[in-house]
Amino acid sequence: MFMPFYLIDFITRSNYKKYWEDTMKFGFFDDLNKEYVITTPKTPLPWINYLGTNDFFSLVSNTAGGYSFYKDAKLLRITRFRYNNVPMDTNGKYFYIKDGDTVWNPGWQPTKTDLDSYECRHGIGYTKWNSSKNGVKAEVLAFVPTDDTCEINRIKLTNTSSEAKDIKLFSYVEWCLWNADDDMKNFQRNFSTGEVEIVGSTIFHKTEYRERRNHYAIYSVNAPIDGFDTSRDAFLGAYHDNHDPEAVFNGACTGSEAHGWSPVAAHQINIKLNPGESKSYVFVLGYCENPEDQKWESKGVVNKAPANAMLAKYKTDEDVDKAFAKLNAYWDNLLSIYTVESNNDKVNRMVNIWNQYQCMVTFNMSRSASYFESGIGRGMGFRDSNQDLLGFVHLIPERARERIIDIASTQFENGSAYHQYQPLTKRGNSDIGSGFNDDPLWLIAGTSAYVRETGDISILKEMVPYDNDMSVATTLMEHLKRSFDFTVNNKGPHNLPLIGRADWNDCLNLNCFSEHPGESFQCFGPSEGPVAESVFIAGMFVKYGEEYAQLAELLGDTAEAERARKEIKIMYDAVLKDGWDGEWFVRAYDAYSNKIGSKECEEGKIFIESNGFCSLAGIGVKEGLAEKALDSVKKYLDCKYGVMILQPAYTVYHLELGEISSYPPGYKENAGIFCHNNPWVSIAETVIGRGDRAFEIYKKTCPAYTEEISEIHKTEPYVYCQMVAGNDAYIPGEGKNSWLTGTAAWTFCNISQYILGVYPTHKGLSVDPCVPHGFGDFKITRKFRGATYHIEVSNPSDVEKGVKELIVDGNKVDGCVIPFVDGKKEYNVKVVMG
Ligand code: GLC
Ligand code: GLC
Fold first, then answer.
1. How far is it, in rounded angstroms, from Cα 665 to Cα 646?
2. Which end of the chain has the lower number of beta carbons within 10 A, N or C?
3. How would you write 693-710 as a 3-class SS string?
4. Residue 71 C-alpha to ligand 2 middle, in angstroms?
5. Is the dihedral of CA 296, 298, 300, 306 positive or negative?
6. Torsions phi, psi for 531 (to 5 deg)
7. pLDDT reported for residue 23
8. Taking 70 as the threshold, does the pLDDT of residue 5 lie above it?
9. How many CB atoms lie within 10 A of CB 299?
10. What span, in angstroms and rounded, lies between the C-alpha atoms of 559 and 469?
11. Which protein residue's CA is at the shortest distance from atom 8 of ligand 1?
C-alpha cells in the first residue's frame, strides 16, 4: 500500500510510526528468477540496480533514471544525471510512447502518466520493465553484455487491443560532456563545445574528439528511423523539460544538429501495430575508442569502424538473447560458489543472491557511483577496498589478487598508507594523504583472506613498490610486516595504538580541532598527535596480528610468528589494563588523554566499534569480559532497527572529537546505526557461542527482513545501506546511502563464515556454525580451491554452537576443519552439531 506523502503531514510522528509498523512493501522477491519485482513506480526513494561487469557500467532506477560511464564515473561519464534535483532521479534512458493524445513511459518517469500496469524487475546485472497503457504493452530489457562496452535496451511493443494502432516511439538520452565534474560547473566553455554526427539510425556524440579525445559515444537502433534530434533545446522546447518534450507531444522530432549547448540523442520510430501484433527494437548505447592515428575517416569525420563492429553484433532479437544468456551464465557461475539451502527463505535469498551481488557491485564501484555517491568524489579507499575484498575474494580471486597489489603499492615505507588512491592512475591521493592509523592493518586482513581462500602463497613473495616507487619495492610479506610494525611503533601513553587522523570511524577526529566551516574535519590541524589512542585499533591488532603470524608460519618463519604473538600478548594486556571500563571496552583516549566511550563521559559513554572488534578478536573472552561487553552493547546500544554506534548521542559540537559531534543526534557516526559494524557484534556473539543473539542482530539490518518496513526504511529492500537513523533521530529506522558500503562484505562474512560457519583456513574449510535455536538442518555447497564441497549440517539437539561430529567422505575427522587434499575434486561432508 502506498501512502501519499502529504497525508504524512497530518499524522503526528508517533502515530506515523505506529501506522507504518505493519507490513509496508512496494514489491516482492522472485527468488526463482533472482529478481526483486517492484510493483509501483512510487517507491520511497529511487530503487536502483547496476548494469555492467567490466568497464562499461550503468546505474538504473525503477523509473528508468540513472546514467552510464566507462571505467571512471568522473572522467568518462557518458550520460548526464542531475543530482539533487526535483523531482528526484532526473535524467535517464527514456522511451516515450505516443499513442493518440496519450504520451507515456514504460518506467513511468518522466511523464508520470498513470499506467494501466507497471512492473520493474531488478535482476542480477539487468533490469526489465513490463508496463501497459490503453492496450499497448511495453517490455523493456536493459543490460550490459559481458564482453562489450555498451548497454542494450530492447523494447518490445505489443498491441493488446482489438483495434489497429499507429503509435510513435521516441528514445532519449542526454550526453554528459565526459568529465562529470567539469560538466556541471564550467558552463562558459561547455555551452560551446558539443558536437555530434548523425548517420542513418546512429547518433555519434563526439564532443572534444577534435582535440584531445580519441573516444566517442553512440546511440543507435536496429531499425530505420522517422526522425531524430540531437539538440536538447530543440527536442524539449524552451521552458519544457523531460516530462513534456515538445517534439514528442507534437509527434515529430525536429532533425536538429547540436552545436554546443546540450547535445542529446533522440530517435523517432513510427509503428503500426495490428491487434495482437508485436514489434521489438534494439537500442545500443555504446562507448568507442580509436587508436590515435586512426581517429578520422576524413577531415572532421569520425572513424566509425569500432561503432559499426559493435552494432553489427546486436542487430537482431536473437543476438540480444544470446548476449543476455551469456550474462546470466556469468552470474550463475559466480553465484554457485557459495550456496545454502536452509529452512529460512530470507537467509537463503540474501546468501545465495543479493548479499553476494552487492559484494560484487561494491567491488566494481568501490565508493564512487551510487545515488548517494556522486561519482565525482572519492577514489578507492585503502581500508574500504581491503574490507570489500573480504566479501568478493571467493568469487573472483584473480581480481582480488590484483587489487591487493594495487592497494599495497600505495603504502609508505614506514608501513602507513595513503588513505585513498585513484582507480585510473592507481596512485595515492595526496589531498588526503595518510595518517588513518587503522589502514595498514586492513592490508593484513585482505591478504590473509585471499591466501586462506586460494592457498596461493606466491602473492606474499611478489615484489611490490612503496608509494608506487619500484626502486624501493619489497615482497608483499614485508609490506605486511611493516603494517604490523606500524602499530607496534606507534603507541601512546597507555601502550595503545595512536589513532592519527581517525581510525575506522572517519569522524572521530581526535587530533584535528577543526573550528571553522571549510576546514576539513579529518585533514585539519596537527592530525597526528602523540597522545590520542584507539582501543578499536588495538582490537584489530590482536585479530589481524594473529592472521599475520599465521602467514609468517606458512612461509616457515616461526621466529617472526613468535615475535608477532609476543606483541599481540602485550597489546591484549594493555587493552585489559587501560581499555576496559568496568562493563565494556573504552573506545579511545583523546588528545588530552581523557577517555572516550566510558562511564566517565557525559555523552558518548559507550561505542560499538571497540566492543565489537575487541570481542570478536577474542580479547576478554576467557576472562568473561567479552560477554559482559556484549551484554552492555545489548543494554545500551540496541534498538529496534539495529545496534547504534554510540550512546548517548552528542548534543553539542566538541572541538576535541571532531566530525562525529557535527552530525545531529541519531544520524551517521553520531549514534546512527552504522550497518557496517553491526556484523562485528554479531560475529563477536558467535565467538562466545550465542547464536540467538548473533542472529537477532543479523536480522535487524538485513534487507530481506527490513523489506517489511520499506516505508520507514526507504532504501532498496534487496541491498544493505550504510546508515540507518538511530533512536535519537526524527524518524528512527530510516536508511540512507544504499549499495556502496563495507556492510555488504561484513554481513556476508558474518552470515556465511560465522553464523552458517563455513570459514576458509590455511589448512582447509572449517565448519563451525553458530545458529539460533530452531534454525534446523541445512546444506551448503561451497567451491573452494578447485573442489566442490557438499556440506550437510544437522542439529539434532537444537544447540546454538558446537560440532559433535565431522564426517568427510564417510571418515570421522577430529575438530572442525576439513583437511584439504590437493587435486581432490569433490568432498561429501556431514556435520553434526551438539
Ligand atoms: C564510510 C567510509 C569508511 C568509514 C566509515 C565510518 O563508510 O567509507 O571508510 O570507515 O564511513 O566512518
Ligand atoms: C564523512 C562521513 C563518513 C565517511 C567520510 C568519507 O566523514 O560521515 O561516513 O567515511 O565522510 O570521507
1. 10
2. N
3. HHHHHHHHHCHHHHCCEH
4. 24
5. negative
6. -120, -45
7. 54
8. no
9. 5
10. 30
11. 384
542-546-548-550 Cα dihedral, nearest 10 degrees: 180
- Ligand 2 within 6 A of CB of 659: yes
Q: What are phi and psi of 763, to 5 degrees?
A: -90, -15
506 is an active site residue: yes
CA gap 404, 616 in Å, rounded? 24
| 403 Cβ contact partners less than 8 Å away, ≥ 6 residues apart | 363, 385, 389, 446
Ligand 2: atom nearest CA of 659 is: 7
**Residue of minimum CA distance from atom 7 in ligand 1:** 741
Farthest-apart Cα atoms in the chain, separation:
85
CB 740 less than 6 A from any atom of ligand 1: no
Whole-number pLDDT of residue 8: 46
Buried-exposed string 405-443: b where 16+ CB fall within 10 A, e elsewhere: bbbbbbbbeebbbbbbbbbeeeebbeebbbbbbbbbbbb
Quick: pLDDT tens for 691-717.
999 999 999 999 999 999 999 999 999
Q: How far apart, in whole angstroms, are the C-alpha atoms of residue 521 and residue 533? A: 18
Centroid of ligand 1 to alpha carbon of 667 (angstroms): 14
The C-alpha cell at 808 is: 568427510
User: How far is Cα 564 from Cα 651, in angstroms, rounded to an integer?
Assistant: 42
- Closest CA to ligand 2's atom 6: 506
Q: Full-prediction pTM beyond 0.70?
A: yes
State the DSSP string of 610-628.
HHHHHHHTTTTTTTTHHHH
Summarize pLDDT for 141-162 with one digit per residue, the tens: 999 999 999 999 999 999 999 9
Catalytic residue among 506, 581, 638, 768: 506
Q: Is 506 in the pocket of ligand 2 (CB under 6 A)?
A: yes
Classify burial at 624, counting beta carbons within 10 Å of its beta carbon; exposed 0-12, middle 13-18, buried 19 or more.
Answer: exposed
- Mean of the per-residue pLDDT values for the chain? 96
Query: What pLDDT is stored for residue 524 in this prediction?
Result: 87
Give the type of residue at 119: E
Ligand number, closest to the Cα atom of 380: 1
Q: Are 808 and 829 in contact (CB under 8 A)?
A: yes
Instruction: Report whether pLDDT(11) > 90.
Output: no
